[in-house]
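Task card 7
Instruction: Convert sequence to C-alpha cells.
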Amino acid sequence: MPVRRRSPARRVLRIVLLLLILGAVFAAGIALGESLHDNPKPGETRTQTRQLRPVSLPPVTRTVTVTTTRG
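Output:
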C-alpha cells in the first residue's frame, strides 16, 4: 500500500489555522484576565474626602506716580 503524502499547501494551511486558533485563545485569555482585573472585589470600599480651605492673601498696596511734562 503506498503512503500518501500531504501537499505542502495543505500543510501550510494547517499551520496557519493552528496559529489563528492559538491567537484567538490567547486574545480570549487576555480579555478574560482584564475583565476579572477591572471588577472591584466586594467589601473593599474606600472613600477619601479632602477639603481645600481658601488662603487669605494680604492686600497689595502699591502707589505708582506718573509725571509728565508738556513741552
